[in-house]
Amino acid sequence: GSQSEDCIQDPDFSWLEPYGDIIKIITLAPEQLKNKQFLKACKDKGIVVSLGHSGASFEQATDCMETVGNCHVTHLYNAMTPFRHREPGLVGAALLDKNACCELICDDLHVHPAAQKLAYQMKGRDGIILVTDSMRACLQGDGESSLGGQKVFVKNGEARLADGTLAASVAPMNEVVLHFLINSGASLPDVVAMATVNPAKSLGVYDRIGSLEEGKQADIVVLDSNDFHVKSTVVAGELVYNEPIQ
Question: What is the 3-class SS of 128-188, one letter each residue?
Fold first, then answer.
């Protein structure tokens, strides 16, 4: 939405075709599509279409969702037309479409706790994917960083551009899960599924990752029950981190 018109190019699936076996998901602004061929090509190739960074109207978003069938929404509420009672926008379309899976940044800065709870009540356990939207400055403390060539300043856990605009998040996933657990009223198993099961299923890799089952890759994080800080991490069955004994 912030790009100038001369920077915007019509989507061309030929750009993606050579990499169709590795591209899993692509975010696009539906109001920039001149026809639906790009959507259909992505669908045929098994590439997840996600709507985001968009100024789409409710009607434009709904039309795109109907064409795709099962689409994503890139970080619901952020970088899109807001919900208004006479213009529901992309937010309204996302909340109403039963097949739309909504990503949600739960650092408690990008999305108000009440808006997180509203999304859960509308979408339920299967309709939300928790994301961090974190940048390279995550866990690096306060100071200057960069994002896509722009200077970013991190202060008190907030990453902002020079003009004060939120640039991205610096929240790790364990904090995101804890925030959503507190804000939504959802059960712990449901919230964990939104960070594990749902993204794995949506990307077509749930047969090997995303849950603790026999035959799947053993990726495990052990969290403290009070503040969810990481105690141990196992990747592919190998212990890669263990909290030092105090």
Answer: EEEECCECCCCCCCCEEEEECCEEEEEECCEEECCCCCEEEECCCHHHHHHHHHHHHCCCH
- pLDDT at position 3 is 46
What are 151's two structure tokens? 């200077």
Domain 5-134+169-209 homologous superfamily, CATH: Metal-dependent hydrolases (3.20.20.140)
Q: Which residues of the chain have pLDDT under 50?
A: 1-4
DSSP state of 81: P
Q: Which amino acid is at 30?
A: P
- What is the reported pTM? 0.90
Q: Is 186 left (phi over 0), alpha (psi -120 to 50) or beta?
A: beta
Let me know: does 218 contact 237? Beta carbons within 8 Å. Answer: yes
Do 63 and 30 touch, CB atoms closer than 8 A?
yes
CA distance 61 to 95: 11
Two tokens, residue 201: 């299923």
Start-end of CATH 3.20.20.140 domains in the chain: 5-134+169-209
12 residue type, one letter: D
pLDDT tens per residue, range 24-42: 999 999 999 988 999 999 9
Q: Decide if 80 contacts 30 (C-beta within 8 A).
A: no
Catalytic residues: 133
